[in-house]
Each structure stands twice: as structure tokens, then as C-alpha cells.
């Protein structure tokens, strides 16, 4: 991996990642109930996991603190950690810049 300072990432790329990964990124606080409801419905309907509903913050929580296993317990921990990440004094952008590949997580304005 090559880590790139967030300031060097073009706004168009950040916007594209947000549009693809978490369209309501600026309107929730780490967990997006609407974003979770859709995959819950689809997964139930198909009888298996076919979609995920993680916000970018939840993805960060998983990368920083959890394993990638697919379980309800891990998902609940991920949601709690995502809300806590959004409320920490360390800026969200700093956490992302220190921990995640640039192409997965865009900067969040303070």
C-alpha cells in the first residue's frame, strides 16, 4: 500500500468514493439505518448474505479494531465503534489518513 495525504487526493475521487460507498456520508453519525435496512431485506429475501450495509465509518472501525468475519456480533461491535469514532476528539480525517488506503475512505470535513 502507498499512503497518500488526504490533501493530495482530488476532490472528484473523494466524491466518487462517497457516492459509491456511502451516499449519505454527510447526513449520519457513523451508522446509517436506511443503508442497513436495504441489505437486511435483500439478505433475508435471498436466504444468504448478498449485500452489506456498512458506512465508511463502519468500514474504518472494522479495519482498525475488528476482524473481517461475517457475524451479527461483529456487526454490532462495528456499529458501536463507528458511532464512537464519529464522536472522538481526533478528527475523522486524521484517523483515515493514518489507517486506511486512500481509495477506500474520503476526508470528512470538520
Please provide a written account of the structure:
The structure is a single chain. The chain has 110 residues and is an all-alpha fold. It is built from 5 helices and no strands. Helix 3 (56-65) packs across helix 4 and helix 3 (56-65) packs across helix 5. The radius of gyration is 14 Å and the shape is globular. The two termini are 26 Å apart. 20% of the residues are buried.
Describe the secondary-structure layout.
Layout: H1 11-21, H2 33-46, H3 56-65, H4 72-87, H5 92-99
Helix pairs in contact: 3-4, 3-5
Helix content: 40-55%
In percent, how much strand structure appears in the residues?
under 5%
* Total E-strand runs: 0
Overall structural class, as computed from helix and strand content, comes to mainly alpha
Low-confidence stretches: 102-106
What Rg do the Cα atoms give?
14 Å
What gross morphology would you assign?
globular
Average pLDDT metric? 79
Amino acid at each position: 500500500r502507498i499512503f497518500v495525504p488526504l490533501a493530495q487526493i482530488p476532490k472528484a475521487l473523494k466524491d466518487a468514493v462517497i457516492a459509491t460507498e456511502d451516499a449519505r456520508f454527510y447526513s449520519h453519525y457513523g451508522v446509517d439505518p436506511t443503508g442497513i435496512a436495504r441489505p437486511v431485506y435483500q439478505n433475508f429475501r435471498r436466504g444468504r448474505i448478498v449485500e452489506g450495509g456498512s458506512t465508511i465509518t463502519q468500514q474504518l472501525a472494522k479495519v482498525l479494531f475488528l476482524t473481517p468475519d461475517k457475524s451479527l456480533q461483529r456487526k454490532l461491535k462495528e456499529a458501536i465503534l463507528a458511532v464512537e469514532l464519529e464522536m472522538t476528539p481526533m478528527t475523522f480525517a486524521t484517523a483515515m489518513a493514518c489507517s486506511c488506503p486512500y481509495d477506500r475512505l474520503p476526508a470528512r470535513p470538520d
